[in-house]
Amino acid sequence: MTPYEIRGLQGRRIKDKIFTSVVWGLTFSCLAVVFIILFYIFKMGIPSLNWALFSQGPKPVGESGGGILNAIVGSLIVVVIAAIIAIPVGVSVGIFLAENRGRKLADRVALAIDVLQGIPSIVIGIVIYVWIVKPTGKFSAYSGSIALAIMMLPPIIKNTEETLILIPTTLKEASLALGASYFRTTMKILLPAGIGGIFSGCIIGIARIAGEVAPLLFTAFGNPQLTGSIFKPVDTIPKVIFTYASSPYDDWHRIAWGGSVILVSFIIVLNTIIKIFESRWKVQF
Amino acid sequence: MKNSIVQSLALAGILAIGLSSCGSGGDKTTPNAANDADKQILGAGATFPYPLYSKMFSEYGKTSGIQTNYQSIGSGGGVKQIMNKTVDFGASDAFLSDADIKSMPAEVVEFPTCLGADVISYNLPGNPQLKMTPEIIAGIFLRNITKWNDKKIAAENPDAKLPDMDITVAHRTDGSGTTFIFTDYLSKISDDWKTKIGAGKSVNWPEGELGGKGNEGVAGMIKQTPGTVGYIELAYALQNSMSIASVKNAAGNYITPTIQSTSLCANGDIPADTRISITNSNVDQGYPISSFTWIILYKEQNYNNRSKDKATNLVKELWWMIHEGQAQTAPLNYAPIPPKAVAAAETILKSVTYGGQPVLQ
After folding, report:
1. pTM (whole model) above 0.90
2. Do the chains contact at B51 and A247, CB–CB below 8 Å?
3. ipTM
Protein backbone atom coordinates (compact mmCIF):
# COMPACT_ATOMS: atom_id res chain seq x y z
CA MET A 1 0.00 0.00 0.00
CA THR A 2 1.21 3.46 -0.80
CA PRO A 3 1.31 5.99 2.03
CA TYR A 4 -1.45 7.88 0.24
CA GLU A 5 -3.79 4.89 0.39
CA ILE A 6 -3.08 4.35 4.09
CA ARG A 7 -3.87 7.95 4.83
CA GLY A 8 -7.18 7.59 2.95
CA LEU A 9 -7.99 4.48 4.91
CA GLN A 10 -7.21 6.16 8.21
CA GLY A 11 -9.43 9.08 7.24
CA ARG A 12 -12.25 6.69 6.59
CA ARG A 13 -11.69 4.91 9.88
CA ILE A 14 -11.82 8.22 11.77
CA LYS A 15 -14.97 9.22 9.91
CA ASP A 16 -16.47 5.85 10.74
CA LYS A 17 -15.61 6.26 14.42
CA ILE A 18 -17.06 9.76 14.55
CA PHE A 19 -20.23 8.67 12.86
CA THR A 20 -20.64 5.62 15.08
CA SER A 21 -20.15 7.65 18.23
CA VAL A 22 -22.64 10.28 17.06
CA VAL A 23 -25.25 7.58 16.42
CA TRP A 24 -24.56 5.97 19.80
CA GLY A 25 -24.65 9.33 21.51
CA LEU A 26 -27.98 10.32 19.99
CA THR A 27 -29.45 6.90 20.78
CA PHE A 28 -28.41 7.19 24.39
CA SER A 29 -29.70 10.74 24.72
CA CYS A 30 -33.06 9.55 23.41
CA LEU A 31 -33.05 6.67 25.90
CA ALA A 32 -31.91 9.02 28.64
CA VAL A 33 -34.90 11.29 28.05
CA VAL A 34 -37.29 8.35 28.39
CA PHE A 35 -35.60 7.12 31.55
CA ILE A 36 -35.39 10.57 33.14
CA ILE A 37 -39.11 11.11 32.52
CA LEU A 38 -40.00 7.66 33.86
CA PHE A 39 -37.69 8.08 36.85
CA TYR A 40 -39.20 11.45 37.70
CA ILE A 41 -42.80 10.24 37.37
CA PHE A 42 -42.11 7.22 39.57
CA LYS A 43 -40.10 9.25 42.07
CA MET A 44 -42.94 11.76 42.48
CA GLY A 45 -45.78 9.28 42.12
CA ILE A 46 -44.83 6.18 44.07
CA PRO A 47 -44.98 7.93 47.50
CA SER A 48 -48.60 8.89 46.75
CA LEU A 49 -49.65 5.36 45.80
CA ASN A 50 -51.80 3.95 48.55
CA TRP A 51 -54.93 1.89 48.95
CA ALA A 52 -57.14 4.99 49.17
CA LEU A 53 -56.03 6.06 45.71
CA PHE A 54 -57.54 2.88 44.27
CA SER A 55 -60.54 2.49 46.56
CA GLN A 56 -61.97 5.99 47.07
CA GLY A 57 -63.49 8.75 45.03
CA PRO A 58 -62.19 12.32 45.10
CA LYS A 59 -62.35 14.35 48.31
CA PRO A 60 -62.69 18.13 48.38
CA VAL A 61 -59.72 20.31 49.32
CA GLY A 62 -58.85 20.24 53.00
CA GLU A 63 -60.05 16.68 53.61
CA SER A 64 -57.28 14.12 53.74
CA GLY A 65 -57.32 10.96 51.66
CA GLY A 66 -59.34 10.63 48.53
CA GLY A 67 -58.51 8.71 45.39
CA ILE A 68 -59.32 8.26 41.76
CA LEU A 69 -61.48 5.11 41.82
CA ASN A 70 -64.11 6.96 39.79
CA ALA A 71 -61.51 7.81 37.14
CA ILE A 72 -60.00 4.31 37.03
CA VAL A 73 -63.46 2.78 36.50
CA GLY A 74 -64.36 5.56 34.05
CA SER A 75 -61.18 5.04 32.02
CA LEU A 76 -61.85 1.30 31.87
CA ILE A 77 -65.43 1.83 30.67
CA VAL A 78 -64.47 4.40 28.06
CA VAL A 79 -61.50 2.42 26.73
CA VAL A 80 -63.29 -0.97 26.68
CA ILE A 81 -66.33 0.43 24.85
CA ALA A 82 -64.01 2.25 22.41
CA ALA A 83 -62.18 -1.03 21.74
CA ILE A 84 -65.49 -2.87 21.20
CA ILE A 85 -66.52 -0.27 18.63
CA ALA A 86 -63.15 0.13 16.91
CA ILE A 87 -61.81 -3.44 16.71
CA PRO A 88 -64.51 -5.02 14.48
CA VAL A 89 -64.56 -1.98 12.19
CA GLY A 90 -60.79 -1.64 12.10
CA VAL A 91 -60.12 -5.33 11.44
CA SER A 92 -62.78 -5.40 8.69
CA VAL A 93 -61.28 -2.38 6.96
CA GLY A 94 -57.82 -3.94 7.35
CA ILE A 95 -59.04 -7.15 5.66
CA PHE A 96 -60.62 -5.10 2.88
CA LEU A 97 -57.38 -3.21 2.25
CA ALA A 98 -55.25 -6.36 2.28
CA GLU A 99 -57.60 -8.19 -0.09
CA ASN A 100 -58.05 -5.33 -2.54
CA ARG A 101 -54.54 -3.98 -2.87
CA GLY A 102 -54.00 -1.85 -5.95
CA ARG A 103 -57.67 -1.19 -6.56
CA LYS A 104 -58.80 2.41 -6.76
CA LEU A 105 -61.27 2.22 -3.86
CA ALA A 106 -58.67 0.59 -1.60
CA ASP A 107 -56.21 3.38 -2.39
CA ARG A 108 -58.79 5.99 -1.53
CA VAL A 109 -59.64 4.21 1.73
CA ALA A 110 -55.95 3.98 2.63
CA LEU A 111 -55.57 7.70 1.96
CA ALA A 112 -58.60 8.44 4.13
CA ILE A 113 -57.07 6.42 6.97
CA ASP A 114 -53.83 8.42 6.69
CA VAL A 115 -55.82 11.64 6.87
CA LEU A 116 -57.77 10.32 9.86
CA GLN A 117 -54.51 9.57 11.63
CA GLY A 118 -53.41 13.17 11.18
CA ILE A 119 -56.56 14.78 12.58
CA PRO A 120 -55.80 16.34 15.98
CA SER A 121 -57.58 14.58 18.81
CA ILE A 122 -59.23 17.77 20.06
CA VAL A 123 -60.92 18.16 16.66
CA ILE A 124 -62.36 14.64 16.91
CA GLY A 125 -63.64 15.54 20.38
CA ILE A 126 -65.37 18.67 19.08
CA VAL A 127 -66.92 16.79 16.14
CA ILE A 128 -68.39 14.18 18.51
CA TYR A 129 -69.60 16.99 20.77
CA VAL A 130 -71.49 18.54 17.88
CA TRP A 131 -72.76 15.20 16.52
CA ILE A 132 -73.76 13.45 19.72
CA VAL A 133 -73.50 15.53 22.89
CA LYS A 134 -75.25 18.67 21.66
CA PRO A 135 -78.25 16.94 20.00
CA THR A 136 -78.82 14.60 22.97
CA GLY A 137 -78.10 17.38 25.46
CA LYS A 138 -76.04 14.98 27.57
CA PHE A 139 -72.37 14.31 28.20
CA SER A 140 -71.80 10.57 28.37
CA ALA A 141 -69.16 7.87 28.58
CA TYR A 142 -70.23 6.38 25.25
CA SER A 143 -69.74 9.67 23.37
CA GLY A 144 -66.17 9.71 24.69
CA SER A 145 -65.76 6.09 23.59
CA ILE A 146 -66.87 6.95 20.06
CA ALA A 147 -64.31 9.78 19.88
CA LEU A 148 -61.56 7.43 21.11
CA ALA A 149 -62.74 4.63 18.78
CA ILE A 150 -62.16 6.95 15.81
CA MET A 151 -58.62 7.59 17.07
CA MET A 152 -57.99 3.86 17.51
CA LEU A 153 -58.96 2.95 13.96
CA PRO A 154 -55.76 3.88 12.05
CA PRO A 155 -53.32 1.68 14.04
CA ILE A 156 -55.73 -1.28 14.02
CA ILE A 157 -56.34 -0.98 10.28
CA LYS A 158 -52.65 -0.56 9.43
CA ASN A 159 -51.54 -3.52 11.56
CA THR A 160 -54.29 -5.79 10.25
CA GLU A 161 -53.48 -4.89 6.66
CA GLU A 162 -49.73 -5.29 7.04
CA THR A 163 -50.08 -8.60 8.86
CA LEU A 164 -52.48 -10.11 6.33
CA ILE A 165 -50.24 -9.12 3.41
CA LEU A 166 -47.51 -11.30 4.89
CA ILE A 167 -49.71 -14.41 4.74
CA PRO A 168 -48.88 -16.34 1.55
CA THR A 169 -51.67 -16.32 -1.02
CA THR A 170 -51.12 -20.08 -1.52
CA LEU A 171 -52.67 -20.62 1.92
CA LYS A 172 -55.81 -18.77 0.89
CA GLU A 173 -55.91 -20.49 -2.48
CA ALA A 174 -55.65 -23.89 -0.81
CA SER A 175 -58.64 -23.11 1.37
CA LEU A 176 -60.72 -21.83 -1.53
CA ALA A 177 -59.71 -24.82 -3.65
CA LEU A 178 -61.01 -27.15 -0.94
CA GLY A 179 -64.40 -25.53 -1.36
CA ALA A 180 -64.40 -23.24 1.68
CA SER A 181 -66.41 -20.07 1.21
CA TYR A 182 -64.69 -16.71 1.15
CA PHE A 183 -66.14 -15.85 4.56
CA ARG A 184 -64.94 -19.17 5.99
CA THR A 185 -61.49 -18.66 4.51
CA THR A 186 -61.23 -15.22 6.08
CA MET A 187 -62.48 -16.28 9.50
CA LYS A 188 -60.74 -19.65 9.72
CA ILE A 189 -57.53 -19.16 7.76
CA LEU A 190 -56.58 -15.51 7.38
CA LEU A 191 -57.56 -14.14 10.79
CA PRO A 192 -56.16 -17.03 12.89
CA ALA A 193 -52.92 -16.92 10.92
CA GLY A 194 -52.54 -13.21 11.47
CA ILE A 195 -53.95 -13.02 14.97
CA GLY A 196 -50.66 -11.96 16.56
CA GLY A 197 -50.27 -8.89 14.38
CA ILE A 198 -53.95 -7.98 14.56
CA PHE A 199 -53.96 -8.31 18.34
CA SER A 200 -50.87 -6.16 18.76
CA GLY A 201 -52.49 -3.58 16.45
CA CYS A 202 -55.48 -3.49 18.80
CA ILE A 203 -53.23 -3.02 21.81
CA ILE A 204 -51.25 -0.28 20.08
CA GLY A 205 -54.60 1.39 19.48
CA ILE A 206 -55.55 1.08 23.15
CA ALA A 207 -52.15 2.37 24.26
CA ARG A 208 -52.61 5.33 21.94
CA ILE A 209 -55.96 6.39 23.41
CA ALA A 210 -55.45 5.48 27.08
CA GLY A 211 -53.63 8.73 27.78
CA GLU A 212 -55.84 11.01 25.69
CA VAL A 213 -57.62 13.85 27.40
CA ALA A 214 -58.49 16.24 24.57
CA PRO A 215 -61.25 14.15 22.91
CA LEU A 216 -62.84 13.51 26.32
CA LEU A 217 -63.04 17.10 27.58
CA PHE A 218 -66.38 17.72 25.90
CA THR A 219 -67.68 14.16 25.61
CA ALA A 220 -67.02 11.97 28.67
CA PHE A 221 -66.67 15.31 30.50
CA GLY A 222 -65.89 14.14 34.05
CA ASN A 223 -67.75 13.06 37.16
CA PRO A 224 -66.62 12.96 40.78
CA GLN A 225 -69.17 10.22 41.50
CA LEU A 226 -68.50 6.59 40.77
CA THR A 227 -70.78 5.35 38.01
CA GLY A 228 -70.92 2.22 35.88
CA SER A 229 -73.32 3.66 33.33
CA ILE A 230 -72.18 4.43 29.81
CA PHE A 231 -74.97 7.02 29.52
CA LYS A 232 -73.58 9.29 32.25
CA PRO A 233 -70.52 11.53 32.29
CA VAL A 234 -67.45 9.77 33.70
CA ASP A 235 -64.01 10.83 34.84
CA THR A 236 -60.92 9.36 33.22
CA ILE A 237 -57.37 9.14 34.59
CA PRO A 238 -55.77 11.61 32.13
CA LYS A 239 -58.58 14.13 32.78
CA VAL A 240 -58.05 13.86 36.56
CA ILE A 241 -54.30 14.38 36.13
CA PHE A 242 -54.98 17.46 34.01
CA THR A 243 -57.43 18.98 36.51
CA TYR A 244 -55.48 18.17 39.65
CA ALA A 245 -52.07 19.14 38.31
CA SER A 246 -53.30 22.64 37.51
CA SER A 247 -54.82 23.17 40.98
CA PRO A 248 -53.05 25.14 43.72
CA TYR A 249 -53.23 22.34 46.31
CA ASP A 250 -50.43 19.96 47.27
CA ASP A 251 -52.87 17.14 48.09
CA TRP A 252 -54.26 17.27 44.58
CA HIS A 253 -50.77 17.41 43.06
CA ARG A 254 -49.94 14.19 44.89
CA ILE A 255 -53.04 12.51 43.49
CA ALA A 256 -52.10 13.73 40.00
CA TRP A 257 -48.64 12.13 40.36
CA GLY A 258 -50.20 8.91 41.63
CA GLY A 259 -52.57 8.90 38.65
CA SER A 260 -49.60 9.46 36.32
CA VAL A 261 -47.84 6.40 37.74
CA ILE A 262 -50.96 4.26 37.24
CA LEU A 263 -51.39 5.50 33.66
CA VAL A 264 -47.73 5.14 32.71
CA SER A 265 -47.55 1.65 34.25
CA PHE A 266 -50.64 0.65 32.24
CA ILE A 267 -49.00 1.87 29.01
CA ILE A 268 -45.74 0.06 29.84
CA VAL A 269 -47.66 -3.17 30.48
CA LEU A 270 -49.51 -2.79 27.15
CA ASN A 271 -46.24 -2.21 25.29
CA THR A 272 -44.70 -5.27 26.93
CA ILE A 273 -47.70 -7.34 25.83
CA ILE A 274 -47.25 -6.05 22.28
CA LYS A 275 -43.58 -7.11 22.29
CA ILE A 276 -44.43 -10.57 23.59
CA PHE A 277 -47.13 -11.02 20.96
CA GLU A 278 -44.91 -9.79 18.18
CA SER A 279 -42.16 -12.25 19.07
CA ARG A 280 -44.35 -15.28 19.88
CA TRP A 281 -47.08 -15.02 17.26
CA LYS A 282 -45.22 -13.54 14.37
CA VAL A 283 -46.48 -14.50 10.93
CA GLN A 284 -43.86 -17.00 9.70
CA PHE A 285 -44.08 -19.26 6.72
CA MET B 1 -52.06 -27.41 14.01
CA LYS B 2 -52.21 -27.03 17.79
CA ASN B 3 -51.05 -23.49 17.38
CA SER B 4 -53.90 -22.58 15.08
CA ILE B 5 -56.46 -24.04 17.52
CA VAL B 6 -55.01 -21.86 20.29
CA GLN B 7 -55.18 -18.90 17.95
CA SER B 8 -58.81 -19.40 17.00
CA LEU B 9 -59.66 -19.86 20.68
CA ALA B 10 -57.97 -16.56 21.42
CA LEU B 11 -59.96 -14.88 18.66
CA ALA B 12 -63.20 -16.36 20.00
CA GLY B 13 -62.22 -15.20 23.47
CA ILE B 14 -61.69 -11.63 22.35
CA LEU B 15 -65.06 -11.61 20.62
CA ALA B 16 -66.77 -13.16 23.66
CA ILE B 17 -65.30 -10.57 26.01
CA GLY B 18 -66.38 -7.89 23.60
CA LEU B 19 -69.95 -9.18 23.38
CA SER B 20 -70.34 -9.75 27.12
CA SER B 21 -69.11 -6.31 28.08
CA CYS B 22 -71.44 -4.90 25.44
CA GLY B 23 -74.31 -6.60 27.26
CA SER B 24 -73.30 -5.48 30.72
CA GLY B 25 -72.82 -1.94 29.42
CA GLY B 26 -76.45 -1.83 28.37
CA ASP B 27 -77.74 -3.46 31.55
CA LYS B 28 -76.29 -0.81 33.77
CA THR B 29 -79.16 1.64 33.28
CA THR B 30 -81.15 0.92 36.40
CA PRO B 31 -84.96 0.77 36.26
CA ASN B 32 -85.37 3.74 38.62
CA ALA B 33 -83.01 5.83 36.52
CA ALA B 34 -85.57 8.66 36.33
CA ASN B 35 -85.52 9.07 40.12
CA ASP B 36 -81.73 8.99 40.24
CA ALA B 37 -81.44 11.49 37.44
CA ASP B 38 -83.46 14.03 39.43
CA LYS B 39 -80.86 13.86 42.19
CA GLN B 40 -77.91 14.37 39.86
CA ILE B 41 -77.00 17.94 39.07
CA LEU B 42 -74.46 18.81 36.40
CA GLY B 43 -72.62 22.10 36.31
CA ALA B 44 -69.58 23.42 34.48
CA GLY B 45 -67.52 26.55 34.06
CA ALA B 46 -65.09 28.75 35.94
CA THR B 47 -61.87 27.18 37.19
CA PHE B 48 -61.33 29.76 39.93
CA PRO B 49 -64.16 28.62 42.29
CA TYR B 50 -63.69 24.90 41.50
CA PRO B 51 -62.06 23.90 44.82
CA LEU B 52 -64.74 25.81 46.75
CA TYR B 53 -67.61 24.35 44.72
CA SER B 54 -66.31 20.81 45.04
CA LYS B 55 -66.17 21.29 48.81
CA MET B 56 -69.64 22.90 48.92
CA PHE B 57 -71.26 20.20 46.80
CA SER B 58 -69.62 17.45 48.81
CA GLU B 59 -70.98 18.97 52.04
CA TYR B 60 -74.44 19.54 50.58
CA GLY B 61 -74.53 15.98 49.23
CA LYS B 62 -73.96 14.56 52.72
CA THR B 63 -77.21 16.02 54.07
CA SER B 64 -79.41 16.17 50.96
CA GLY B 65 -78.36 13.12 48.95
CA ILE B 66 -77.96 15.31 45.86
CA GLN B 67 -74.98 14.31 43.72
CA THR B 68 -73.46 17.32 42.02
CA ASN B 69 -70.93 17.03 39.25
CA TYR B 70 -69.06 20.30 38.70
CA GLN B 71 -66.44 20.37 35.95
CA SER B 72 -63.95 23.25 35.78
CA ILE B 73 -63.75 23.82 32.04
CA GLY B 74 -63.24 27.59 32.20
CA SER B 75 -65.66 30.51 32.30
CA GLY B 76 -66.10 30.67 28.53
CA GLY B 77 -66.89 26.95 28.45
CA GLY B 78 -69.46 27.35 31.22
CA VAL B 79 -71.34 30.02 29.25
CA LYS B 80 -71.18 27.90 26.09
CA GLN B 81 -72.49 24.76 27.81
CA ILE B 82 -75.47 26.51 29.42
CA MET B 83 -76.21 28.03 26.02
CA ASN B 84 -76.24 24.52 24.49
CA LYS B 85 -78.33 23.24 27.41
CA THR B 86 -75.91 20.41 28.15
CA VAL B 87 -75.55 21.40 31.84
CA ASP B 88 -77.99 22.37 34.62
CA PHE B 89 -76.00 25.44 35.54
CA GLY B 90 -73.01 27.30 34.18
CA ALA B 91 -70.39 29.22 36.13
CA SER B 92 -68.36 32.22 35.05
CA ASP B 93 -65.88 34.66 36.56
CA ALA B 94 -67.24 37.44 34.37
CA PHE B 95 -70.92 38.35 34.27
CA LEU B 96 -72.71 37.83 30.96
CA SER B 97 -72.35 40.62 28.43
CA ASP B 98 -75.46 41.99 26.74
CA ALA B 99 -74.44 40.11 23.59
CA ASP B 100 -74.13 36.84 25.57
CA ILE B 101 -77.59 37.32 27.04
CA LYS B 102 -79.06 37.97 23.59
CA SER B 103 -77.52 34.81 22.12
CA MET B 104 -79.00 32.58 24.85
CA PRO B 105 -81.93 30.46 23.61
CA ALA B 106 -84.06 31.50 26.61
CA GLU B 107 -83.95 33.96 29.47
CA VAL B 108 -81.14 33.26 31.95
CA VAL B 109 -80.48 34.57 35.44
CA GLU B 110 -77.17 34.85 37.25
CA PHE B 111 -76.07 35.49 40.81
CA PRO B 112 -72.76 35.69 42.69
CA THR B 113 -71.59 32.86 44.98
CA CYS B 114 -68.28 34.17 46.34
CA LEU B 115 -65.51 36.66 45.72
CA GLY B 116 -61.99 36.36 44.53
CA ALA B 117 -59.11 38.79 44.26
CA ASP B 118 -55.96 39.13 42.19
CA VAL B 119 -52.82 39.92 44.11
CA ILE B 120 -49.64 41.44 42.78
CA SER B 121 -46.83 39.12 43.75
CA TYR B 122 -43.11 39.66 43.29
CA ASN B 123 -39.70 38.23 44.01
CA LEU B 124 -37.13 40.70 45.32
CA PRO B 125 -33.95 40.12 47.34
CA GLY B 126 -34.72 40.63 51.03
CA ASN B 127 -38.48 40.32 50.51
CA PRO B 128 -39.44 43.98 51.13
CA GLN B 129 -43.15 44.68 51.76
CA LEU B 130 -44.13 46.91 48.85
CA LYS B 131 -46.93 49.43 48.45
CA MET B 132 -48.26 50.13 44.97
CA THR B 133 -50.45 52.85 43.54
CA PRO B 134 -52.67 52.28 40.48
CA GLU B 135 -50.18 54.43 38.56
CA ILE B 136 -47.27 52.14 39.46
CA ILE B 137 -49.23 48.99 38.59
CA ALA B 138 -50.28 50.35 35.18
CA GLY B 139 -46.72 51.60 34.61
CA ILE B 140 -45.18 48.23 35.35
CA PHE B 141 -47.62 46.22 33.22
CA LEU B 142 -47.45 48.71 30.33
CA ARG B 143 -43.62 48.46 30.56
CA ASN B 144 -43.27 52.20 31.24
CA ILE B 145 -41.62 51.41 34.58
CA THR B 146 -38.82 48.92 33.93
CA LYS B 147 -36.52 49.21 36.96
CA TRP B 148 -37.31 48.25 40.54
CA ASN B 149 -35.58 51.41 41.86
CA ASP B 150 -37.75 53.63 39.62
CA LYS B 151 -38.51 56.98 41.27
CA LYS B 152 -42.24 56.29 41.34
CA ILE B 153 -41.85 53.02 43.23
CA ALA B 154 -39.23 54.51 45.56
CA ALA B 155 -41.48 57.47 46.41
CA GLU B 156 -44.21 55.16 47.73
CA ASN B 157 -41.79 52.83 49.48
CA PRO B 158 -39.21 55.00 51.27
CA ASP B 159 -38.35 52.25 53.77
CA ALA B 160 -37.89 49.42 51.31
CA LYS B 161 -34.46 48.60 49.92
CA LEU B 162 -35.09 48.63 46.18
CA PRO B 163 -32.41 46.98 44.04
CA ASP B 164 -31.17 48.36 40.73
CA MET B 165 -32.78 45.49 38.88
CA ASP B 166 -34.85 45.10 35.72
CA ILE B 167 -38.53 44.33 36.26
CA THR B 168 -39.61 41.10 34.58
CA VAL B 169 -43.37 40.94 34.07
CA ALA B 170 -45.25 37.61 34.06
CA HIS B 171 -48.86 37.16 32.94
CA ARG B 172 -51.30 34.36 32.18
CA THR B 173 -51.24 32.98 28.64
CA ASP B 174 -54.43 30.90 29.01
CA GLY B 175 -57.79 32.65 28.87
CA SER B 176 -58.81 33.15 32.47
CA GLY B 177 -61.15 34.97 34.79
CA THR B 178 -58.06 36.01 36.75
CA THR B 179 -56.79 37.94 33.74
CA PHE B 180 -60.25 39.42 33.19
CA ILE B 181 -60.36 40.85 36.73
CA PHE B 182 -56.85 42.25 36.43
CA THR B 183 -57.28 43.85 33.00
CA ASP B 184 -60.74 45.14 34.01
CA TYR B 185 -59.05 46.87 36.95
CA LEU B 186 -56.24 48.26 34.79
CA SER B 187 -58.76 49.57 32.25
CA LYS B 188 -60.53 51.48 35.02
CA ILE B 189 -57.41 53.07 36.47
CA SER B 190 -55.46 53.79 33.30
CA ASP B 191 -56.80 55.37 30.12
CA ASP B 192 -53.59 54.36 28.43
CA TRP B 193 -54.29 50.70 29.24
CA LYS B 194 -57.95 51.02 28.21
CA THR B 195 -57.10 52.33 24.75
CA LYS B 196 -53.97 50.22 24.08
CA ILE B 197 -54.82 46.86 25.65
CA GLY B 198 -58.35 46.78 27.10
CA ALA B 199 -60.06 44.21 29.34
CA GLY B 200 -60.60 40.55 28.54
CA LYS B 201 -59.96 36.94 29.51
CA SER B 202 -56.89 37.04 27.32
CA VAL B 203 -55.42 40.25 25.91
CA ASN B 204 -52.54 41.39 23.71
CA TRP B 205 -49.89 42.01 26.32
CA PRO B 206 -47.17 44.60 25.71
CA GLU B 207 -44.00 43.13 24.24
CA GLY B 208 -41.23 41.77 26.40
CA GLU B 209 -43.41 40.09 29.04
CA LEU B 210 -43.27 36.47 30.07
CA GLY B 211 -46.29 34.19 29.83
CA GLY B 212 -47.22 31.29 32.05
CA LYS B 213 -50.10 28.82 32.03
CA GLY B 214 -52.37 28.98 35.03
CA ASN B 215 -51.71 30.45 38.45
CA GLU B 216 -49.01 27.86 39.00
CA GLY B 217 -47.23 28.87 35.78
CA VAL B 218 -47.08 32.53 36.74
CA ALA B 219 -46.24 31.73 40.37
CA GLY B 220 -43.43 29.44 39.21
CA MET B 221 -41.89 32.23 37.13
CA ILE B 222 -42.09 34.65 40.03
CA LYS B 223 -40.47 32.16 42.43
CA GLN B 224 -37.69 31.17 40.04
CA THR B 225 -36.51 34.57 38.83
CA PRO B 226 -35.64 37.45 41.16
CA GLY B 227 -37.05 40.73 39.86
CA THR B 228 -40.23 39.14 38.48
CA VAL B 229 -43.69 40.52 39.19
CA GLY B 230 -47.05 39.03 38.20
CA TYR B 231 -50.70 38.74 39.19
CA ILE B 232 -52.18 35.59 40.74
CA GLU B 233 -55.33 34.58 42.56
CA LEU B 234 -55.52 35.47 46.24
CA ALA B 235 -56.32 31.88 47.25
CA TYR B 236 -53.26 30.63 45.38
CA ALA B 237 -50.95 33.28 46.84
CA LEU B 238 -52.12 32.64 50.41
CA GLN B 239 -51.87 28.88 49.95
CA ASN B 240 -48.27 29.22 48.76
CA SER B 241 -47.23 32.10 51.06
CA MET B 242 -45.96 34.43 48.33
CA SER B 243 -44.88 38.09 48.68
CA ILE B 244 -47.87 40.34 48.11
CA ALA B 245 -48.06 44.08 47.45
CA SER B 246 -50.64 46.26 49.20
CA VAL B 247 -52.56 48.41 46.75
CA LYS B 248 -53.88 51.94 47.08
CA ASN B 249 -57.65 51.83 46.54
CA ALA B 250 -59.99 54.48 45.13
CA ALA B 251 -60.59 55.82 48.66
CA GLY B 252 -56.86 56.47 48.98
CA ASN B 253 -56.00 53.75 51.51
CA TYR B 254 -53.29 51.11 51.13
CA ILE B 255 -55.04 47.75 51.43
CA THR B 256 -53.37 44.38 51.89
CA PRO B 257 -55.36 41.72 50.05
CA THR B 258 -57.11 39.44 52.54
CA ILE B 259 -60.39 37.60 52.60
CA GLN B 260 -61.92 40.42 54.67
CA SER B 261 -60.70 43.28 52.46
CA THR B 262 -61.91 41.39 49.37
CA SER B 263 -65.36 40.86 50.87
CA LEU B 264 -65.53 44.51 51.90
CA CYS B 265 -64.92 45.59 48.33
CA ALA B 266 -68.39 44.26 47.43
CA ASN B 267 -70.11 46.24 50.18
CA GLY B 268 -71.48 48.85 47.81
CA ASP B 269 -74.90 48.72 46.16
CA ILE B 270 -75.65 45.67 44.03
CA PRO B 271 -77.96 46.00 40.99
CA ALA B 272 -80.98 43.68 40.81
CA ASP B 273 -79.41 41.50 38.09
CA THR B 274 -76.09 41.39 40.07
CA ARG B 275 -74.13 42.22 36.92
CA ILE B 276 -71.58 44.57 38.43
CA SER B 277 -67.86 44.97 38.20
CA ILE B 278 -66.50 45.85 41.65
CA THR B 279 -62.87 46.40 40.68
CA ASN B 280 -61.55 49.78 41.83
CA SER B 281 -64.59 50.21 44.12
CA ASN B 282 -64.38 53.17 46.49
CA VAL B 283 -65.26 51.21 49.65
CA ASP B 284 -63.01 52.59 52.39
CA GLN B 285 -61.18 49.40 53.39
CA GLY B 286 -61.92 47.29 50.28
CA TYR B 287 -59.14 45.69 48.21
CA PRO B 288 -59.59 47.11 44.71
CA ILE B 289 -58.68 44.14 42.44
CA SER B 290 -61.62 41.97 43.48
CA SER B 291 -64.53 40.39 41.68
CA PHE B 292 -67.60 38.21 42.13
CA THR B 293 -67.89 34.85 40.44
CA TRP B 294 -71.31 33.92 39.09
CA ILE B 295 -73.62 30.96 38.55
CA ILE B 296 -75.91 31.05 35.53
CA LEU B 297 -79.16 29.10 35.04
CA TYR B 298 -82.32 29.30 32.97
CA LYS B 299 -85.13 31.30 34.52
CA GLU B 300 -87.73 28.84 33.22
CA GLN B 301 -86.58 25.38 34.31
CA ASN B 302 -89.09 23.38 32.26
CA TYR B 303 -86.95 22.59 29.20
CA ASN B 304 -85.41 19.47 27.64
CA ASN B 305 -87.99 17.26 29.46
CA ARG B 306 -86.59 18.13 32.85
CA SER B 307 -88.72 17.10 35.81
CA LYS B 308 -90.02 19.51 38.40
CA ASP B 309 -88.14 17.54 41.08
CA LYS B 310 -84.87 18.17 39.32
CA ALA B 311 -85.58 21.91 39.04
CA THR B 312 -86.46 22.03 42.75
CA ASN B 313 -83.33 20.13 43.74
CA LEU B 314 -81.19 22.48 41.66
CA VAL B 315 -82.64 25.72 43.02
CA LYS B 316 -82.59 24.44 46.61
CA GLU B 317 -78.94 23.57 46.23
CA LEU B 318 -78.08 26.99 44.82
CA TRP B 319 -80.07 28.59 47.69
CA TRP B 320 -77.95 26.57 50.13
CA MET B 321 -74.75 27.82 48.45
CA ILE B 322 -75.51 31.49 49.18
CA HIS B 323 -76.54 30.75 52.80
CA GLU B 324 -75.13 27.77 54.74
CA GLY B 325 -72.59 27.10 52.00
CA GLN B 326 -70.86 30.42 52.64
CA ALA B 327 -69.30 28.91 55.77
CA GLN B 328 -67.01 26.91 53.44
CA THR B 329 -65.46 30.02 51.84
CA ALA B 330 -63.01 31.32 54.46
CA PRO B 331 -61.21 28.02 55.24
CA LEU B 332 -60.42 27.71 51.52
CA ASN B 333 -59.25 31.36 51.21
CA TYR B 334 -62.31 32.55 49.31
CA ALA B 335 -64.25 35.64 50.38
CA PRO B 336 -67.94 35.24 51.29
CA ILE B 337 -70.49 37.47 49.52
CA PRO B 338 -71.75 40.38 51.64
CA PRO B 339 -75.41 40.58 52.89
CA LYS B 340 -76.56 42.91 50.09
CA ALA B 341 -75.37 40.45 47.46
CA VAL B 342 -77.05 37.57 49.32
CA ALA B 343 -80.33 39.52 49.29
CA ALA B 344 -80.02 40.17 45.54
CA ALA B 345 -79.24 36.50 44.89
CA GLU B 346 -82.27 35.45 46.98
CA THR B 347 -84.58 37.59 44.86
CA ILE B 348 -83.10 36.07 41.71
CA LEU B 349 -83.47 32.47 42.89
CA LYS B 350 -87.08 33.18 43.93
CA SER B 351 -87.79 34.36 40.39
CA VAL B 352 -86.83 30.98 38.88
CA THR B 353 -89.93 29.15 37.64
CA TYR B 354 -91.07 25.73 36.48
CA GLY B 355 -93.96 25.89 34.03
CA GLY B 356 -94.56 29.51 35.06
CA GLN B 357 -94.81 28.70 38.78
CA PRO B 358 -92.01 29.73 41.18
CA VAL B 359 -89.81 26.75 42.07
CA LEU B 360 -89.22 27.97 45.62
CA GLN B 361 -92.49 28.35 47.50
Report:
1. no
2. yes
3. 0.79
